[in-house]
Amino acid sequence: MNRIDQRFAALKAEGRRALIPYITAGDPAPQHTVGFMHALVAAGADVIELGVPFSDPMADGPVIQKACERALRHGVRLSHLFEMVREFRQTDGETPVVLMGYLNPVERIGLEAFADQAAEAGVDGVLIVDMPPEEADEVGPLLKARGLASIFLVAPTTSRARAATICAHGEGYIYYVSLKGVTGSAILNAEDVAEHLAPLREMTNLPLCVGFGIRDGASAAEVGKVADGVIVGSALVNRIAENAERPEAIPAALKAVLGEMRQALDA
């Protein structure tokens, strides 16, 4: 088992839900990212999703789009993310790290080179938003051979047949998109989420984690009643944006948001 599998196994044994924060690497400047990652762990993160900055993040709303723009202004590239993960691993060898982004930056450096460098840096999983399992025949085996989990999205509009295909190819956990739309776009309905997760549980033993619309402790707790984990992105990236001119205040702001969610999930 890689670190993702180990973490979910431990959480299941404890009867707890995973808390998975997302931040965009290099936002507001690359020298701060590793410190933010450690702050998230201190606040109760079980897995960290580290966003790869991209000029056209089609699944993301304005909050994460602007985060990508801030990072790209500093020239942040995949090679910098690998350096960040290596630095993070110097003092944290346990918290799983998932790279989340789009296929274009991966193809720029080459699929095999990406898989090699990600594994060497200490990455545990990869979620390429615009690479469905039907198109993952080449990169999937490369990741698997290096112990990297291929993580896929399931949406409310996904058909049952296609959801079964996704579950068959998925590893680590399934990322269930709770809303129709982009990140940060609306308020989720926990009852609706529960209805969509029920058939997925018949298709896979992988943990089902829910993202899009998790804004605070209350929404995290509601989703935690029906999911194996909650994923929070825009609420954290908003705090980074609000403090972009004084990055020394960001770790405390991240801890405040995530700490409330951790407490609510564990209550």
Topology:
Layout: H1 3-14, E1 18-24, H2 33-42, E2 48-51, H3 62-73, H4 78-89, E3 97-101, H5 103-109, H6 111-121, E4 125-128, H7 139-145, E5 149-150, E6 152-154, H8 160-169, E7 174-177, H9 190-203, E8 208-211, H10 217-224, E9 229-232, H11 234-242, H12 250-266
Parallel strand pairs: 1-2, 1-9, 2-3, 3-4, 4-5, 6-7, 7-8, 8-9
Helix pairs in contact: 2-4, 2-12, 3-11, 4-6, 5-6, 10-12, 11-12
Family: Belongs to the TrpA family.
Pathway: Amino-acid biosynthesis; L-tryptophan biosynthesis; L-tryptophan from chorismate: step 5/5
Catalytic activity: (1S,2R)-1-C-(indol-3-yl)glycerol 3-phosphate + L-serine = D-glyceraldehyde 3-phosphate + L-tryptophan + H2O
Mean pLDDT: 93
Question: In percent, how helical is the residue content?
Answer: 40-55%
Distance between the termini: 29 Å
Overall structural class, as computed from helix and strand content, comes to alpha/beta
How is the main sheet built? 9 strands, parallel
Low-confidence stretches: 181-185
GO molecular function, one term: tryptophan synthase activity
EC number: 4.2.1.20
Organism: Halomonas rhizosphaerae
InterPro entries: Aldolase_TIM, RibuloseP-bd_barrel, Trp_synthase_alpha_AS, Trp_synthase_suA
Q: Would you kindly provide a brief summary of this structure?
A:
This protein is of the alpha/beta class and 267 residues long.
Describe this structure in words.
- The chain is α/β, with parallel strands linked by helices and 267 residues long.
- The chain has 12 helices and 9 strands.
- It has helices at 3-14, 33-42, 62-73, 78-89, 103-109, 111-121, 139-145, 160-169, 190-203, 217-224, 234-242, 250-266, and strands at 18-24, 48-51, 97-101, 125-128, 149-150, 152-154, 174-177, 208-211, 229-232.
- A 9-stranded parallel sheet has the order 5-4-3-2-1-9-8-7-6.
- Helix 7 (139-145) links the parallel strand 4 and strand 5.
- Helix 2 (33-42) runs parallel beside helix 12, helix 4 (78-89) packs parallel to helix 6 and helix 11 (234-242) packs antiparallel against helix 12.
- The chain starts with a helix and ends with a helix.
- Mean pLDDT is 93; it is low at 181-185.
